[in-house]
Design goal:
CATH architecture of the largest domain: 3-Layer(aba) Sandwich
Structural class: alpha/beta
Strand order of the largest sheet: 2-8-7-6-5-3-4
Strand content: 15-25%
Number of domains: 2
Bound molecules: pyridoxal-5'-phosphate
Shape: globular
CATH topology of the largest domain: Aspartate Aminotransferase, domain 2
Radius of gyration: 22 Å
């Protein structure tokens, strides 16, 4: 197969070879159920405990505050429904640019009688902490704001929001699926009470994630059954996944700082290369408060999907910033919330770089994009926006 370039790391990442090596025995000879009291079970339990300890050390929290889940989606559901159901009613605050795992969970809670405020964002996709403060009511039971947006990479002012949440005694959930293991994250300094993180965004396996729950935060379990995870999440633990997540975190602890610097340079090289050669482009998201490897670019008068498919033919993987629902192409809700005009938003493409991305890859993507956008614009029927 010819060389392929993967610039879709915000969607998922390849499992790191050291992570895979550490997981493999747990599919084979170390297959025990951690709840079993015999040697096979104890071996599995020890592996789960070791991974939990590693993650706790990385986050600077207690190991017994971490619950393993099946994904960032479950962690978000658990945090928000768990908070809501522990109170039985009340008001939640979130934003319009959250992942669907948060937005749709909040919408469902609305349908169950809870009140929800969906905060607007500015043109960079940023929530204003003063808006959070203004939205707090006497019956506010939780605030859920993501750390960084998966589409445009904007990093939210989480410390300021955390301080407000703390002042008002409101539990603060942060979906850190796109930042955990990528940028520094100090849950104590940021005033966070609940943190969602996921394995497959950080070179760990899919289907494994976690929710950190500050001790004392009242949360009701959403999945019932056995006594697993201190009765907070029933179900036999995904032992190979947990081992992989633990190892992925250990590798990130070593690689994260150096990689962030490298990715900022590569991300800027990509944007500089494209804007120098393609007219009518714009970079979405915050210019500096942004994930190191994320460049979301609008190519005006071109449809995102045409670029994604055109680049795919050249062996380059990027993702569309718009969603195809029931056959009609809609602009991304994140870009709409940021006020990006529709004729720009329809041409949004997310390029997300990762640990194996090189300057050569970036230059090749620029070389691929320039003629493709020219061709697509030339083929556009007259009068079409
Ligand atoms: C910000 C954010 N939250 C939650 C999720 C869902 O995570 P998972 O794929 O592990 O369910 C994602 C995945 O794209 C994400 O980017």
């Amino acid at each position: 197969m010819s060389r392929r370039i993967y610039l879709d790391h915000n969607a998922s990442t390849p499992v790191h070879p050291e992570v895979l090596a550490e997981m493999l025995p747990y599919f084979g000879e170390r297959f025990g159920n951690p709840s079993s009291i015999h040697g096979f079970g104890r071996e599995a339990r020890a592996a789960v405990d070791a991974a939990r300890d590693r993650i706790a050390r990385f986050l600077g929290v207690r190991a017994d505050e971490i619950v393993f889940t099946s994904g960032g989606t479950e962690s978000d559901n658990f945090a928000i429904k768990g908070l809501a159901q522990a109170r039985g009613g009340g008001h939640l605050i979130t934003s319009r640019v959250e992942h669907h795992a948060v937005i749709r969970t909040c919408q469902w809670l609305e349908s169950q009688g809870f009140a929800v405020t969906f905060l607007d964002v500015d043109e960079h996709g940023m929530v204003d902490p003063d808006d959070v403060k203004r939205a707090i009511r006497g019956d506010t039971i939780g605030i859920s704001i993501m750390h960084a947006n998966s589409e445009v990479g904007t990093i939210q002012p989480v410390a300021a929001i955390g301080a407000i949440a703390r002042d008002h005694g409101v539990p603060f959930h942060v979906d850190a699926v796109q930042t955990f293991g990528k940028i520094p994250l100090d849950v104590q300094a940021l005033g966070i009470d609940l943190l969602s993180f996921s394995g497959h965004k950080i070179y760990g396996p899919k289907g494994i994630a976690g929710l950190w729950i500050r001790k004392g935060t009242k949360l009701v379990a959403v999945q019932h059954g056995g006594e697993h995870e201190r009765r907070r999440r029933a179900g036999t633990e995904n032992v190979p996944g947990i081992v992989g997540l633990g190892k992925a975190v250990e590798v990130r602890a070593q690689e994260m700082a150096g990689e962030a610097v490298r990715l900022v340079a590569l991300r800027d090289r990509l944007w500089d290369g494209i804007r120098a050669r393609v007219p009518e482009v714009r970079l979405n998201g915050h210019s500096t408060a942004r994930l190191p490897g994320t460049a979301n670019i609008c190519y005006r008068h071109v449809e995102s999907e045409s670029i994604v498919l055109g680049l795919d033919l050249k062996g380059i993987a990027v993702s569309a910033g718009s969603a195809c629902t029931s056959g009609s192409i809609e602009p991304s809700y994140v870009l709409v919330a940021m006020g990006v005009p529709v004729d720009w938003a329809m041409g949004a493409v997310r390029h997300s770089l990762g640990r194996t991305t090189t300057a050569e890859d970036v230059d090749e993507v620029v070389e691929g994009v320039v003629p493709l956008v020219e061709k697509l614009r030339a083929a556009r029927p007259a009068g079409v926006a």
